[in-house]
Amino acid sequence: MGEFKVHRVRFFGYMPSGIRCMSFNERAERLALGRLDGTLEIFNFKDSFYQEKVIPGNDSRSVEAVCWVAERLFTAGLNGEITEYDLENLCPKYSLDAFGGPIWTVACNAQGTHLAVGCEDGSIKLFEILPEKIRFERNLDRQKGRVLSLSWHESGTRIAAGMLDMIRIFDVQSGELCTCLMLVDRGVSGMRNHECVVWCVAFLSDLTVISTDSSGKVQVWNAAMGILSSTHLVSKSDVLSLAVSKDESSFVVGTSEGTVVQFQFLANILGGDEKAWVRTKTFKPHTHDVRALAEIGTAVVSGGLDTQLVVRPLLDKVDIMSYDNVLHKIHFPHRSLVSCAQKAGMLLFQFPAQLEVWRLGESEGRKPGDTLFVKKNPEKLLQLKRKGEDHISCSAISPCGGWLAYSTVSSLRVYRLQCDEHVSISKVGGLCHCSSTRAPRTALLHFDSLSLLSAWCCSFANVFKSHPVCLCLLFPGAQCISHHILLLSSPFPFQPHCTVPIYGSCPTAMGIHPTSNNLLMVHADRQIFEYSIVEKQYTDWSRRVQREGLHKLWLERDTPVTHVTFNPRNAAQFMLHDTYMFCIIDQSLPLPDNKCQFYNQITLKSLSEQERLSHAHAFKMCTKYQHLLFLGLLDDESLVVVQRPLTDIASQLPAPVRLKKFAT
Amino acid sequence: MVASAEVRVARCGGSRINFIEPIITLDSRFLLCASGDAVHVYSTSTEERVHVLQGHVDLVTGLRLNSSNHLQVYSCSLDGTVKLWDFTDGILIKTYIVGHKIFSLYVSKFHEGTVFIILPMESSANTEAFQLVALHLPKTTGPEVEARDILSVLRDVSPIPKATSFGRGGEFVASASGLQLSVYFFRKQKTYRFSLKANDKKGARNRFTCVASHPNDDCIATGHEDGKIRLWRNFSQKKEYTYSTEHWHHSAVNALHFTPEGTELLSGGVESVLVLWRYGAGSKKDFVPRLGSAIEHISVSPDGSLYCTSHKDNKIVVMKSSRDISAIIQGLVKGETIRTDLLIDPRTKALVCNGKPGHLQFFSLRHDKQLYNLDIVQQEYIHEAGLHQCEVTKAAIDAQGSWLATVEERQENPEELDIILKLWAYDESTQSFHLNTSISMAHEGQISAMCFSGDAEATMLVTTGRDGHFKAWLLADHPDAQGEGASWSCDYVGSYHRREPTRCCFSADGSLLAVGFGEVVTVWSPSTWELLVTFSQPPGDIRDLCFGRLSCSKYLLGTTTKNLLCCWNLLTCSLEWSSTVDVILLQPDPLSENMAAFSRASGSTDLFVFKPSEPRPLFSQKAVCSGTVRRAVFAPREEVLEGCDESTQWLSCSRLYFLTEHMELMTFSTKSEEDQIIASSKQLVIDDSVAVTPFYLLLGKHRKSQRETQDSVSSHTAARIQLPQGSPAIRELLHTPAHVLPSASFLCNMFVNSLLISKSGVREDGRCREEEMGSEEEEEAEEQESEGEMEASVSAQGPAVQGFQTEPTPQLSKAQERELRKLQKADFSWLSSLLDS
């Protein structure tokens, strides 16, 4: 199988940004997630929770609230603008200033005709949703104090607004304040002189209003009468988020202690009519503020300042236990932030605001299983800050280490990098013809060491408008892009070579074999395909895989495969990695069936040479390196493993809300 | 009266009163709890024991109020019977024979004529499996009924009573066992089972410990091993059931109970804090802290005015709903081990032994009640696992009961040993012991034995230590310590060939001291400290030593570790006899020559009672209990038991108590004794199902006054003309509000009666009856004297019977009435003679 010298890289200081808001589109089963740095991410819940699209953020834009209107996505932020996004090209379509100061919340009515935004100056502004754009319609009665949360009644005639110390209900037709005005108690005596912030409201169809506030209360109001029906003290600090299930039989709230509390509308007597909201389950999926929550029927999705997205299944709503309804935690982006110059032994790390180039260290001694002595420490060669306000969306380094490129939503920059004695960098101009027509989109850049820059997928935008490009790579003489995988022939200008048959799940990693020119694809549902570019059909091995099926444990893995590497020494071997393992697949060995042991390394070790052969199968897993961000092979046949331990991320987070723990 | 006197091992007082949940009666006046084979009825206000319901022959395991008649109570026992009692009078009404061991009993208001019991599963060989069954109680008459109509409700339940609970309106029953909660709906006849994982990543221990059901809502509360309380709802769904979790207790929740209104949930555990959770208000809670010991059970009175907690130290605390503690009923405190010997305090005749940590308890065996606790260690007890505590390891009381010696020990590691010998003087004025002398490190090693001399003039204490010495301590005045009175000091230190003394014993008159050094017994004269003689019977070290008493005082008895019981004659200084018995405990009777020896034989213990002078044992019984006997003591009787034949003669002036391996206090009782108890309990006549209304009180007072008249007449003190005695009755009549008065026709009769001058003579035909009444009344009077505070409803029992005989009581069947009448007619004249004596 092979022994590798492993460069274990733990100096990539990747720090994801906290989650600010989320919105779930039930029809498309997609979750839009806004982060504190303004990045928008779209997860496809149909497709193994794959992070389908990422719209990089911008320093001048913040995302305070996100809202789906049918298939359209709107956000509003503290810059006072409402933004609609182009989900094809992964960029903002247009922005509209609401002229009400910072916007705290945005809500769409059930009919999908109007958008309401709550502003800092206390106004609630209604926007009419037109195809292609939105238009300001009118203001509701302006009140004093900021509007922090909004919720439409199902009928679309009323709207509840959570403000400071009170909840107001407006009549949408007249724009007037309804008679009912609910004052929120400020809570415990020590907090009396602080304003109580109503962080979230939800207007149910039976005219019940649920509110969560900064004094730790969840309150259920009767809006018809304007009275409080029950109060639940959930936390000692803020209750920041609220999500109601579609059938309005339960809701969840998230607190700043990191807990998520479920409430259910239950009958006091089994089968009786008299029902009450009862606090039922408490989860603690997070360590910090739970800023965003969504209930998606069978699960609760939560996100917060500790940057992870947690999908927690509600087991009572689940009929069959399967892969889709176990606990998921998504820590890392489902794309590679690291690129590797194989020949030069350099790594390029991508941050939203900068790029870093590191040279790997050297070691001495060669004893299997040992930690080798580091002769030369890795060194940081370069830190390149981006230009402009847009965050970096992708980056690449050439295998020889001499070229470097990154792109943002608006521009592409290419640099020549020389690092002999002194590190020097110079911008390469003359690329403007590529970026002239349309704003560039997310793409992976790949360098060929011979030609300067072979491909930039954006240039095909006009050709394949309907299919956004997720991945792109290059092999001598061909170019391929996905989502619907298309092969292009080189040299420039590219022509379509052929289209790989469409598969229902998104490809997460692709690679073209250096010798056989087979295209290897791994999809979000962890299926593996191999496509012969020359013959324009699936290879025999790929057909065998489909016929025999993959092992159950392989299909149940939690995180998608993000990178494919080929072993230059052995043409039959390639390597895949996800967050928790890497795997060497040997195409010459038989595939494991469901009966055989999948993780068999230890068993194999104990067997004799002959028996070992009979037990061996194509998958060789290694789970030694956890929290993998990247795995690649250098030309000197050593492995580079880039790890980012979660404890390192946690240590960089602000201190969580202090909780008294028993016996401490 | 003399019955065939058989001797039986019986549970006597000092049983666990915290074994099952106590219950409070509907009017909150009485508290019922199981204690060994009996059910005790306590008054909730005075803590006094009102009745003992005796009749079961094995441990009582369940106790519930009869839901159709709140003055009756069902009890079940391991002897396979369910008994129905009238607890106000302490009368057994009915016995239902089930024929299997019953582990728990439940009564549901909505299942008339049925009780629910937990039985072992018959079919399977597995004795660990239990089932909850519905037992239909047959309506046939007669005091003993076979009840075989059993319907299985739930299988595989836990035998622990608090793990099962009946829900709102008796519609369902919830039972937890291990990690599973089963809910059975009676209407749908369907069982739902919910399982929890044994533990999760955070190390939660999810095993169920107890279950309680909300009285009005469909909500089940369950307690868990890790201290969590789960509130289950929607449990009629296989999947959509839900629960919320509350966590305050740091270790297992021992007891859970809802208040009758369902507004509060009470929970308790080892923290000795009663937690009151506000129902429906999340984690809002109140606490009643410092209850002294771990809470085992919680119960609430049916009107919600009293809470009651059972504690691990055999204590029941009754508190009002305002959380003021109103009564504490303390039983014999029993820990896991007992370090001291069982002693009898000569003054109070109370049993003295280890009680609470660092205390000695004085427990009256006769009244089955703790008299007081003596704090020996006088240090704060810190409850913490693995902490080395100061323990009272030895105690001795001198023959007059004026001196108490205690030894306390604390050993953190083998090198550091703390020993304090304390001597306590009895203070007549405060009626308790006061510390006189405290001697730290009285010996270099552990103190292995301690005894007082029987000499009345100069009390001497001898201690033997592991350091190879025995020391004699005498009370002496110190010239330098002024004003402090006499204190104890060491008088003599003796040793013998550097051997380690193990036992010491004074002869009855205090003239001889025997000290066992390994396998050698040395006899010393305490007056001169001269070694008189040595005995040795190798091999085997001396385990027990004691001198004979009274006529056998010339004998010295000893047991060795090598299964030898020896008797030495002190006059001839030779071995009189010896026998090979593995005696683990030798106990002399202070009032007779008898000696009791417990010997071990294949997993159980045998008892021999013998006189040193006679070769044949007076009494022997095989297998008095399983396992070994830890401690034993002879306690003198209050009065000499009469009518004993030869084999029970040894029980006539004192009783033998012993502690078994499981810390159960047992005694020997003769048949004649039991007969007496049963006879005395039967004499009470029933009928107190009349509610205590103002009218009833009025009538009762009136009758009482009438009876006083009769009394005065029958005692022939004065034959003068009676004044109209009705005036108080009339006053009562006039002062009672009109709406509670009975009909005028009834009152008229009474009114006229009260004005009539009652005839002193008794009708001829009623003589027999009158006599009977007389005896009863006398007894009544006695009762009144003793229980002066008892309310009129109790004291007026006798006349009430007379007055209400014409009214058929609703609860009693015809046959029962007949039975009662028969009882009434029975001749109880012998009783009066008994009472006179």
From TrEMBL, chain A:
GO molecular-function term, one example from the UniProt record: RNA binding
Name of this chain's protein: UTP4 small subunit processome component
Gene3D superfamilies: YVTN repeat-like/Quinoprotein amine dehydrogenase
This protein's GO CC annotations: 90S preribosome; small-subunit processome; t-UTP complex
Classification via SMART domains: WD40
Biological process according to GO: maturation of SSU-rRNA from tricistronic rRNA transcript (SSU-rRNA, 5.8S rRNA, LSU-rRNA)
Encoding gene (name): UTP4
Database matches in Pfam families: WD40
